[in-house]
Amino acid sequence: VEPTVAVHFGPGRLGLGLVVDVLLSTERYEVYLIGRPNSSLSERRSYYVRFTDPRLGMRQRTVAWAGNTAKMADLPERLVAQLRDANSVLVTTALGEDNVAEAYERIHCVLQLRPAMSSTVVLVCENERHKMYDELAGANPHAVVLHCVVDRICAWDEESLLPGKSVLAHDVSQWVVPHAYAPAPDLSGPVTPGTGPTADVHRMPWPALVGLTEEPNVLLLANDATSYAHRKLWVVNGIHLILATIARRNGVDVLPLIGWRQQEFKESIRPLMLAMLETIDRAFGLAVDEHFADERVRAFCEAPDSATRVLRKRYIRSDLRPYIERLATRVGTAAKLAHDHDVDIAPFVWVFREVVEAMAESDSYLDVTVVDPATGKLYRTGSLPEVDARVDAEVEAAFARSLEGWAPEEAVDVLMRRLHNALATWRSD
Amino acid sequence: MTDGRTSGVAESLRALRTSEAVATSPASDVLVLLLGGLRQLTDWDTDVLCRYLGCSGPQSEPNRVAHCTAYLEWVTDACRKVDPSRELVRARREVLVGAFELCAGAGGPASGRVARCREAMLQPVKGSFSANDLLELGEVAEAWRQAARALPSGPAREARDSFDTCTPNLRRGHLHPRRLQLLLTGDAQEIQNYIGATVALRMHTHLSACNLCKAVAAELDLRWDHAPLLASPPLRQVA
Hints:
The structure holds two protein chains of two kinds. Chain A is of the alpha/beta class. Chain A is 40% helix and 17% strand. Chain A is built from twelve helices and 15 strands. In chain A, helix 11 (389-403) packs antiparallel against helix 12. In chain B, helix 5 (62-81) packs across helix 6 (89-104) and helix 7 crosses helix 9. The longest helix of chain B is centred in the N-terminal third of the chain and has 20 residues, at 62-81.
């Protein structure tokens, strides 16, 4: 079988550790890797994926071509020719929120090379939805742009002595592709992806996705992936945020938790995990899958990481708004839906209490103390953070909003007072 | 004085001093002096201070004045247990808001709450230290948790018990790992800024006697037996 051309934008941890790794595993794709034009590091054709489980060892991955190209003229002629011909092409992206905006032009130029009648699928593999992709879809109606749910803990492998990039990855992973099936040929009238019949023997995946059908960690859905997206956001990202917050409060910065700490955390987080899964089942019809959740918690507990990295740019005393926003999207929304679907909300109240307890530990903020993830050494920041009462007021307002509509009044009163007091000790007013 | 919020407390204090019931007694002066002391300890002005003390303004009834006096004395005692240095003003503010939380959640008649809180702060829980011991080590947040655990009943005790059941216990030892790390790796200026010299000495004394905290230090790859400047025994002991 002639391999399908796959162009991947974003050779970061997730891109290399999950997306490209899976594409190469299938042996059905010829992968081209495109990095940032202004990157100081020239992309190499080869990189390494080492698994946290030593029994799984290390893989060397080699793509057809890799480069930090800024212009179409920099792309290899072979790729340009393949983009211009009628065969199907897969484009994947895993850019991360800091790089998404600047990548528009380059992805758009690649899509513009595609003939209008040829099958082109763009799989967006980002943790957050970004409007750039909507603009991209609008400007390229001949391409099918699909927002995937991707999940694998990947980190740069700091211990690697090998040349080029090396990713440390956990074996637990999932790549969910929504609207993966093309409209059935016998359907009459206009059909948009995902609105037709669900998993149907008469429907085939988009040609560019056929190579992914046999891959065990890839789930091709006929309809949207809302339930999977919520499950991932809450059970993976939400619990990760809570783990980091609790660890930080307790002065444990270097993850994973091991031994008795791991056991303690697993037992404590279980009620929340089950409440989240129950909510997803009742609200979106995705059956409770305890194995999924157990595997994610196992991944947190086995993958090297640090609370500092998980909370970076957010758990900052001078401006806690980004942290509270994360808490709201990852836990607050889940709690509201749990309440609306008669799921026990006690585990969600517990999470907010954990957050307030952490905030009362005034040296726990990342602009007060930081821990070098490599050495585990603690550093104090040179000067104490500047604290603005107006920003604190917004933090309190956002925190209150995230409790709205689900938390018992009594709990809200206590939480709000504790948060207010914890923040107030930093100010003179 | 402990069951509500108000503004304009400075004005209220003036009113208190001219109140008929107490103007002739030294009680009002005691309150004013206690508030002045707490103002100095926390670097908060009177209005802010009273807001976080939960002060509802002047009380002219002798029983209420006695209660307020007991409350302020207890808060002052608690604030004085942590490091007295100028740099540690935030720690004393944390003590103050923690005291309000504990007293508000102590349950039972308001008149007996301060006594219950004082008693609770003396009680070691589950073989660990008392809240007062922890305050002296600068472990403010943990001290208030411990005090809530030691209350015989009331909302604060119930909330603490329920939280303790849910939360993972990731810590061993009495000294927070971050403070321990700073104590054993920080320079003198950092220790002065973030722990305070008085508390640092107490921490060293504690560390030399506590196997649990030594084990935590060892886990962090810290040399607890390596004595930096502040670990020196007080001069009178040397003599």
